[in-house]
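Minutes, structural biology subgroup

Action item carried over from last meeting: produce the structure token record for LysR family transcriptional regulator (Shewanella fidelis). EB confirmed the sequence was re-checked against the source entry. Recorded below for completeness.
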Amino acid sequence: MDFSTRLLLLLEVVELGSFTKVAEQRNLDRSVISKQISRLENELGVRLLNRTTRSLALTAAGNEMLNQARSLRTLLNDSYLIAQNYHSQPKGLLRISSTSLFGRQYVQQAAILFQQQHAEVEVELRLEDRIIDMIGERFDIGFRVGKPKTSNLISQKIARNRLLIVASPAFIAKHGAITTIEQLESLPAAVYAAPGLLLDKFAYQENKQQKQFKLNAAYKVNDLEMLTQTAIAGNMLAVVTAQMIGNEIVSGQLTPIMTHLHLEDFGTIYAVYPHRNAPIKTRLFIETLKSIVGNEIPNWEQRIPGFENMYAAHNPN
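Output recorded by EB:
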């Protein structure tokens, strides 16, 4: 390794939090990483990291070098992107991160179509619902619900992600027409739950005021697709996104209820990427995905008859 490579290695160690994690990611022995950082310290003549058996801590000099490493990485990445944009045909590896359900439904389709059109691009698709460090984990593009909170990512809107409330005909026959918030909150419901996250409260507007209803969570599950399946079974209702709906409403397995409610969107789906000057392979992949999702009205909304007149469809929020 040369000096600049070792400097970038320091940045990687700090971002991942340990020599061991860097070694695993690079498929190297931990001792190799440790020796390279020690060599960097010798070259600079200062200690950069205080090491214990359980943790690493930057020294003051280490903090300064970390800033230099970040600047170096930005410069190298920008140089690479500028060069990439001179290629008429996309090439190389495209690393994509996506939430699980959207990835299975749409990003997978886009990846197949993209590689049919651009055979020289190798695609790696990672489906995860955790928050990804796009830059630190070296992803080219990610697809997420909601605009990223970090200012170091560029975001591009893909589509709205509207909510609806569904129940099976058997559930409605058993409980009668559901027309009030009180009924909605009292009836058994299936909700999404994961460590640190419980989606049993949803916002709506009434008389220009934001309000909230809370579902009676009789069944909690950490797989979004299970919500529609549970509602189809007939024992519970569910609040789902239009993206989660296939042909269940057209086939009569599920019925939208409380359609007069002014529901707020669950969150817009965005493409996020690290650099404003994105390489051609990133830009072309977004275009491919949009061709599958649809432009003005996403395809998943078109599968729901009359959805344009439900839940205050023109709500800008």
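Discussion: The chain has ten helices and 16 strands.
Next step: EB to file the record with the rest of the batch.
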